[in-house]
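Please decode residue identities from the backbone states below.
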């Protein structure tokens, strides 16, 4: 990856994080922690990887993305807005009663959303179905999905993994945001799913473990995905929950609450400083 590409992606990631803070602060609700940890992936997917067209969001030959951990909609909405699917200013309407940007993605109201999600564990099953459908129709379509490490405690997730392996869905790329925290505390204390990589391998996946907040590492994962044949691909992203906002990092309290006015100002000041640093580099 060139330094210029990395700089561009870092800039988008910072802006995605700003949208997350903007939206959750305005809504006085939402899930900033896991949205922030996934922001670098969103930037890479929507600005360097997926074959999509904001002017034709229903193009039948487009790549698909399913946010299985649907509560992290603020991060996905920010990426979609920056990519041109709808005005970035609309992030301020997040979760408002008359807004199309609700707390979980709705494919019927939000341009660029490929599947309505929210009930944890179900999104990957939809993604697997999309991948199987593309194979059946002989379409060159890749399907990407993002799960949380708390989400994979759901049994349906592993049924979907088994299906993906059975039908050799090498057009399926599964990301697991392994930030170590879920709503009730540390994942290892609530329901320890480790070793996640060995589980995925046992379910027939090609697997890579990366730093999910590093663009060179993300590039390595996508390259490995495109070089994998005959089996689904799984990427375990080691990330920092709340990444980019100092007081939210690795703090379980920020799984599902919004910053107040003072906290908003601190977060935006930090993210603006980060953006300025990136653009001056």
């Amino acid at each position: 990856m060139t330094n210029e590409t990395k700089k561009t992606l870092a800039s988008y990631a910072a802006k995605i994080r700003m949208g997350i803070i903007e939206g959750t602060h305005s809504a006085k609700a939402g899930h900033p922690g896991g949205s922030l940890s996934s922001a670098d992936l969103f930037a890479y997917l929507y600005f360097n990887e997926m074959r999509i067209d904001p002017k034709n969001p229903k193009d039948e030959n487009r790549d698909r993305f399913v946010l299985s951990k649907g509560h992290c909609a603020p991060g996905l909405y920010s990426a979609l807005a920056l990519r041109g699917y709808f005005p970035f200013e609309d992030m301020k309407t997040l979760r408002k009663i008359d807004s199309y940007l609700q707390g979980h993605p709705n494919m019927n109201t939000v341009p660029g959303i490929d599947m309505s999600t929210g009930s944890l564990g179900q999104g990957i099953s939809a993604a697997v179905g999309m991948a199987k459908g593309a194979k059946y129709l002989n379409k060159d379509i890749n399907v990407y999905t993002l799960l949380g490490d708390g989400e994979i405690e759901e049994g349906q997730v592993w049924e979907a993994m088994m299906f993906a392996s059975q039908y050799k869905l090498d057009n399926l790329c599964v990301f697991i945001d392994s930030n170590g925290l879920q709503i009730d505390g540390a994942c290892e204390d609530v329901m320890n799913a480790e070793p996640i990589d060995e589980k995925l391998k046992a379910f027939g996946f090609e697997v890579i473990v990366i730093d999910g907040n590093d663009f060179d590492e993300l590039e390595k994962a996508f390259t490995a995905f495109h070089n994998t044949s005959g089996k689904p691909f799984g990427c375990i992203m080691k990330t920092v929950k709340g990444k980019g906002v100092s007081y939210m990092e690795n703090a379980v309290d920020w799984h599902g609450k919004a910053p107040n006015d003072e906290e908003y100002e601190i977060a935006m000041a930090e993210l603006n400083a980060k953006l300025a640093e990136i653009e001056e580099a």
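Observation: The CA atoms of residues 100 and 109 lie 6 Å apart.
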